[in-house]
Specification:
Layout lengths: L7 E11 L6 E2 L3 E2 L3 E13 L5 E9 L8 E2 L5 E2 L4 E3 L9 E6 L5 E7 L6 E12 L6
Antiparallel strand pairs: 1-11, 2-10, 3-10, 4-9, 4-11, 5-6, 5-8, 5-10, 7-9
Length: 136
């Protein structure tokens, strides 16, 4: 069996919360220093509205200052921004992932406000390919 534990860092990217607000909620600034790859993993919990739709987007910045972040170009994403869209399958207890392939030092995930969304969502950042292994 191969060792993954020593080769990744894991940080809270977006604390799990109920998504009833119509305003965007920015997650934590993730510092990529010391790592060469990043993926965000988002997960929903209970969703009480069957027509709910929960969207997230990745942002990047050269600094950790909140106002400096801007949306990541699609070319710098591996996959697409996570979205939990109601349809034939339930969005409750679902998982989505997206990779970041940009050149900025900081990245974060933002939950897009939507009045129709009544559900819990959170995200973690998985940092990989550490410059110095094992990763702490």
């Amino acid at each position: 069996m191969k060792d993954l534990h020593s080769k990744v860092g894991v940080l809270s990217a977006l604390s799990p919360a109920l998504t009833t607000a119509t305003t965007d909620t920015a997650g934590n600034a993730i510092d990529l220093q010391g790592f060469n790859s990043l993926a965000f993993v988002a997960q929903t919990g209970a969703v009480t509205t069957t027509t709910a739709s929960i969207s997230l987007r990745v942002q990047e910045s050269d600094t950790s200052t909140a106002s400096d972040f801007s949306d990541v170009a699609a070319a710098d994403l591996i996959g697409s921004n996570p979205a939990f869209t109601a349809g034939a399958t339930s969005i409750a207890n679902a998982v989505r992932k997206v990779g970041y392939n940009g050149a900025k030092r900081y990245a974060r995930i933002v939950r897009t406000g939507a009045a129709s969304a009544t559900g819990n969502v959170g995200a973690i950042a998985v940092l990989g390919h550490p410059v110095d292994a094992p990763a702490a």
